[in-house]
Design brief:
Pfam families: DNA_binding_1
Protein name: Methylated-DNA-[protein]-cysteine S-methyltransferase DNA binding domain-containing protein
Keywords: DNA damage
Domain Methylated-DNA-[protein]-cysteine S-methyltransferase DNA binding: 2-54
Largest sheet: 2 strands, parallel
Strand content: under 5%
Length: 102
């Protein structure tokens, strides 16, 4: 799953549910993995479906969003920045990696 997140291009984001759809697991599981191991990947590119991160990490994420020119406001990432499931799945499949949630 963390490999999937690494494929998200700069200036784009995905929702937990989008990652889960590609990895065949629940958004909650994605969140749990991100909480435990996400500091080793581009964690700021994974947000909830509304484009929001918890307040305690929002400020750190917005620094990355500014650097990458990710469209966002002071409250959330804009919808235009989101990758859809089919876009993320295409990136994943093009790398020839077998998806699994482990």
């Amino acid at each position: 799953m963390l490999r999937i997140i690494e494929l998200v291009p700069a200036a784009r984001v995905v929702a937990y549910g989008t990652v889960g759809a590609v990895a065949d697991c629940s958004p909650r599981y994605v969140g749990r993995v991100m909480r435990e191991f996400g500091s080793n990947v581009t964690w700021w590119r994974v947000v909830n479906a509304a484009g929001i991160l918890p307040p305690e990490i929002f400020a750190r994420a917005s620094i990355h969003w500014e650097e990458e020119c990710t469209p966002h406001s002071h409250e959330r990432v804009e919808r235009a920045a989101f990758l859809e499931v089919d876009e993320l799945d295409r990136l994943w499949r093009s790398h020839g990696i077998d998806p699994d949630c482990g």
